[in-house]
Amino acid sequence: MKSAVLVFPGINRERDMARAFREVTGVEPIMVWHTETELPDVDVVAVPGGFSYGDYLRCGAIAARSPIIPALRAHAAAGRHVLGVCNGFQILTETGLLPGALMRNASLRFVCKEVRLRVDNAATAFTSAYAPGQVIRCPIAHGEGNYFADPETLAELEGEGRVVFRYCDAEGRITEAANPNGAVDGIAGIVNAAGNVLGMMPHPENLIEALQGGLDGRGIFESLARAA
Amino acid sequence: MLKNDIAITPELIKAHGLKPDEYQRILDLIGREPTWTELGIFSAMWNEHCSYKSSKKWLKQLPTKGARVLIGPGENAGVVDIGDGQAVVFKMESHNHPSYIEPYQGATTGVGGILRDVFTMGARPIAAMNALRFGAPDHPKTRHIVAGVVAGVGGYGNSFGVPTVGGEVEFHPRYNGNCLVNAFAAGLLKTDEIFLSEAKGVGMPVVYLGSKTGRDGMGGATMASAEFDDDSHEKRPTVQVGDPFAEKLLLEASLELMASGAVIAIQDMGAAGLTCSAVEMGAKGNLGLTLNLDKVPTREPGMTAYEMMLSESQERMLMVLHPHLEEKAEAIFRKWGLDFAIVGETTDTLRFVVEHHGQVMADLPIKDLGDQAPEYDRPWVEPKRQPVLAAADVPAPQDYGRALLDLVGSPNQSSRRWVWEQYDHLIQGNTVQRPGGDAAVVRVERPNGGHAKGLAFTCDVTPRYVEADPYEGGKQAIAESWRNLSAVGALPIAVTDNLNFGNPERPEIIGQFVHALKGVGEACIALDMPIVSGNVSLYNETNGEAILPTPAIGAVGLMDDVTRTIGVALAADGDVLVLIGD
Amino acid sequence: MKARVTVTLKHGVLDPQGKAIQGALKSLGFAGVDDVRQGKLIELELATADRAEAQAQLTDMCEKLLANTVIENYRIELI
Amino acid sequence: MKARVTVTLKHGVLDPQGKAIQGALKSLGFAGVDDVRQGKLIELELATADRAEAQAQLTDMCEKLLANTVIENYRIELI
Ligand SMILES: Nc1ncnc2c1ncn2[C@@H]1O[C@H](COP(=O)(O)OP(=O)(O)O)[C@@H](O)[C@H]1O
């Protein structure tokens, strides 16, 4: 599987993302600088985490207006895969490739910890390595991960099974206590209508080796490799 | 003729924190009255913060050498060999006074400063820690300061992209008027790619990089060394605002530039920015340096030479570049959207010359600015030691369960999770031991493959002990850091220190300092942990009440195989607990 | 010409900052404070002196960058 | 009564947000934009109908919470 990782000024988890692709798929991804206007011929484009443009104005807003974005849209329109993690998710919502918006955490604090996620749709190209309803561990690290969408959008997401991950407790229950940022209905990750663009706040790329405390994040990359 | 349209009055001299005898020393050195700009330059170079005038004598006695030490104190950060052609670069620095005045921005700029110290050496930062001390939990200011400082440490480190893996948080009424914010950073580099601040060659371009210069923190370095009084709020507009985004760009651009081979010398602009960095680069290289301030990128119109020389705007660097590689260097900085300007050149005159609008605003002997800084052997008295308590004299608790609950529920013993959860401690994907244990462990991959090594980090000191007996307390801080590193399976290799004390003009305070340092030094020798970098913060005192003496220690350990690290969690039911030591 | 753009959350969009401020004001003892909303203020200087042109430019800036029209409204003032 | 509080950075204080917005506007092709500064806008509803009282309350809120008077100025408007 061939992959590319977009790099915007202020992005800081591009190396983590590249490592995950390398470790799991054995292929080194191509790093693509934001001023490029074309993408290499790859199966997956990852938009990694960080603080593009310092997250000033709005998270992901400035990056979403970069020269590379039209090429990203074209890649998505062609049905190829796009994975946005954390700031990457925020950038994808700002481009309109995914609906909704990510607001300040309800606590107003940045939070870095391990949470549990329930895989609510294991039939996507990003999650086929997981079982439906499986509860996985995954780190989060963000200050603005509070997913919001209007009721119509939410109904659409739910109706089409496009909520892929939700914050849950160890038993898979969606509770307020298990929700680290106030996201509506515990939403941690969604896909677009075509199912080829995933955005998620948690960082699967930081849980792919035993040394990091677990392998639960590998499934995303394994699924993508399978789909390629 | 030097422009000198502001009269140098005794009041002005005093406002610059210079004592009459120090001013006399200036007159003797330059043989005339200084200009206003020159007075500013002297005050910046000769304040406690930059010159270490009260502490130098004692710092010289610390053990700083060891088989692994590649670079000890004196550069931006210490460098320690960890084998395989790799080295760890680290240092700790305080931002106490600014954090008390504006907790969020004070903490951010503290973290920014220490990160710059590390990447100025050519290292990519791989870990950060923060040692924090606040007033009593029920003191009216404490909550505000804690919230701001913790958010600021996180706000900067998280955005910059370094995992904050450890630290300390303590509360005590003696910090009511002076919180402590000590930031530690460590980075990794190859031993043959270490960058230093020593300028080399005559006629080399001196280049300004990073963010523009504004009137930030005017006289901030002077503030950081001045004892607080109740109208210290008047000093408020000197607050600097941190821009972690600019710093991240500066990191990437600097590392790219260093890799390109264009850099001869590099120095970050910290306290008293342009002044200290330029003087240091020239003086270390036995060269003169001329700056043309017309070229300095400024954020505000109408800045004077005085203001530019003393500005503490953050996220700036000064470099000496190879002349034929300027264009390449500029292209790299433009790519990262940063300012780049040739602002001067090295000379063979040993003079520090500052020009502005075609006029010479300062012309000073460059070596003397550093070398001739006052150095004091301040009078000190033997500290009063608190008597040793016999264990038998301490009554046993009535109810051990209750006592245990009180302990774990007390502000100083309770969980620090609420702090480190606000810090990204997982970024970079190398955190093997997360915060919450004895020491944090970060994976270090070998350049040529093979099983990964580990670096362990811990911050320690128990100020109550140092107060009770400075010598024993100093030893204890080192011993505790040694134990914390050993407990995760690492071999302790070196330390950095951040010596926070009260007003050195009081003999009791210097007495504490001298004895604590003696303890620290002896313990370092006994445990073979040289001190490779550090920082001194004096005048932590409000209305005559000093903080508890707080020589914070940041210690680093090495493990050959990172998979051998051991945590604090019990592994399984039925595990045997063993108590060792006494 | 100087201009001021204010960007506010649309009605119905949750505002964690506003909510937190409301809570904080309450715990500081300010009673009867309600419906707190936080928005952004962007002040800028435009080269043009033509008000119509400035208005058009600013609208374009808001649509393209300054506001996320999915969740935010904006208002332009020329000063 | 409705009130609006605007909080802006004091003159001379670095505004990283404003700087980033200015850069982004430039790279989107908006020419001649200068001196971009970002501030905060807080809208709230007060129980009182007395303007003088509202003004006093709001000043108190600004000093205690809404503005960081070390680096920020505030302005109060009653609507
Ligand atoms: N400010 C902080 N930032 C990050 N981690 C912290 C901070 N304060 C405490 N910790 C972490 O919490 C744990 C417990 O701290 P502490 O009680 O000081 O430990 P010890 O006394 O065992 O050295 C340690 O892992 C420490 O690194």
Give a written overview of the molecule.
Chain A: GO terms for molecular function: ATP binding; glutaminase activity; phosphoribosylformylglycinamidine synthase activity. Chain A: One of its GO terms (cellular component) is cytoplasm. Chain A: The active site is at residues 86, 203, 205. The complex is a heterotetramer, with one copy of chain A (228 residues), one copy of chain B (582 residues) and two copies of chain C (79 residues). With 228 residues, chain A is α/β, with parallel strands linked by helices. Chain A has a single domain (3-227), classed as Rossmann fold. Chain A is 21% helix and 25% strand. Chain A is built from five helices and eleven strands. Chain A has helices at residues 14-25, 69-77, 87-95, 151-159, 218-227; strands at 3-7, 30-33, 44-47, 81-85, 101-103, 111-119, 135-142, 146-148, 163-168, 187-191, 197-200. In chain A, helix 1 packs across helix 5 (218-227). Chain A is globular and about 45 Å long. The termini of chain A are close together. With 582 residues, chain B is an alpha+beta fold. Chain B has helices at residues 10-15, 20-30, 36-46, 48-51, 56-59, 96-101, 103-120, 142-160, 220-224, 244-259, 273-284, 305-310, 326-335, 366-371, 400-409, 417-420, 463-468, 470-487, 507-526; strands at residues 69-71, 78-81, 86-94, 124-134, 164-171, 180-190, 205-210, 263-268, 288-292, 316-321, 339-347, 351-356, 359-365, 431-433, 440-444, 453-460, 491-500, 531-537, 541-542, 545-546, 550-559. The longest helix of chain B is centred in the last third of the chain and has 20 residues, at 507-526. Mean pLDDT of chain B is 92; it is low at 220-225 and 229-236. Chain C is α+β, with helices and mostly antiparallel strands and 79 residues long. Chain C has helices at 16-27, 51-66, and strands spanning 2-9, 33-45, 72-78. The termini of chain C are close together. The model of chain C has no long low-confidence stretch (mean pLDDT 93). The interface between A and C is medium-sized, with 21 and 15 residues. Strand 2 (33-45) of chain C pairs antiparallel with strand 2 of chain D, so a sheet runs across the interface. The complex binds adenosine-5'-diphosphate (ADP). The site of adenosine-5'-diphosphate (ADP) has 17 residues of chain B, from strand 4, strand 5 and helix 16.
